[in-house]
Automatic annotation (TrEMBL):
GO terms for molecular function: dioxygenase activity. It comes from Streptomyces hazeniae. It comes from the Bacteria. Coiled coil: none annotated. Belongs to the cysteine dioxygenase family. InterPro entries: CDO_1 (IPR010300), RmlC-like_jellyroll (IPR014710), RmlC_Cupin_sf (IPR011051). Keywords: Dioxygenase, Oxidoreductase. This is Cysteine dioxygenase.
Length: 179
C-alpha cells in the first residue's frame, strides 16, 4: 500500500537571493516552461513516452518529455546530477523512498507501507539532489508534458528494481541510450 499522495505547489519565490541551488534549478525549469516557443518542440506519440532535448539555461541539460496516460519511468537516479522538473500539461505522480540517499548507492530502502507519493499538476514542480531515486508516472487520462533540467549534464541513469522493501540497482544507462 502506498502512502497518501500530497499535492506539490510551486515555491512562492524560489529564485530569491540566498535560495538553495535546488530552488534556483526549479525556478529555471519553471521559467523555461513558460516560454511559448518551448512546448511546440515536442511531438507526442500515442502509446510511448517521447522526449526532445532543448536548449537549457546556464549550461543545464534540458528535456521535454511527453507521457501518455499510464506510462512511467521506472525507478532510477540521475547518475550524480541534480535536477528539477515541472509539469506543463496533464498529471504526474512521483514515487520516492522515505529519504534521498546521502551518497550514490546500489540499494535503497523503501519505507514501510511503500514509497512516498507526490501528485504534480500543471505549474507544479520538484527539485532534487544528486542521489535522488524516484519513479515518475503519468496518472491522468490525457497526455502529460513535463520539462526537466539537470546540472551537470546527465552522466548516466541508474535503473533500480523493487525487491521486497528494497530498490536494487539492475542497470546503468549512458547518454547514447536516450539521446
Amino acid at each position: 500500500m502506498l502512502a497518501s499522495p500530497t499535492q506539490s505547489r510551486p515555491d512562492p519565490d524560489p529564485a530569491a537571493p540566498g535560495a538553495s541551488p535546488r530552488r534556483r534549478l526549479l525556478a529555471r525549469a519553471a521559467e523555461l516552461a513558460r516560454d511559448p516557443a518551448v512546448r511546440p518542440q515536442l511531438h507526442l506519440e500515442a502509446d510511448v513516452r517521447t522526449w526532445a532535448r532543448i536548449d537549457g539555461p546556464d549550461g543545464c541539460e534540458a528535456w521535454l518529455v511527453g507521457w501518455p496516460p499510464g506510462t512511467a519511468t521506472g525507478w532510477h537516479d540521475h547518475g550524480g546530477a541534480s535536477g528539477a522538473f515541472t509539469v506543463l500539461e496533464g498529471l504526474l505522480e512521483e514515487h520516492t523512498p522515505a529519504a534521498e540517499p546521502s551518497r550514490e548507492t546500489d540499494t535503497v530502502r523503501l519505507p514501510p507501507g511503500g514509497p512516498h507519493r507526490r501528485a504534480l499538476t500543471p505549474g507544479a514542480g520538484r527539485a532534487f539532489g544528486p542521489h535522488h531515486v524516484h519513479d515518475v508516472l503519468s496518472t491522468g487520462t490525457v497526455h502529460a508534458v513535463s520539462l526537466h533540467l539537470y546540472a551537470p549534464a546527465l552522466p548516466s541513469m541508474r535503473r533500480f528494481a523493487a525487491h521486497g522493501g528494497l530498490l536494487r540497482l539492475v542497470d546503468v544507462e549512458h547518454p547514447g541510450a536516450w539521446t
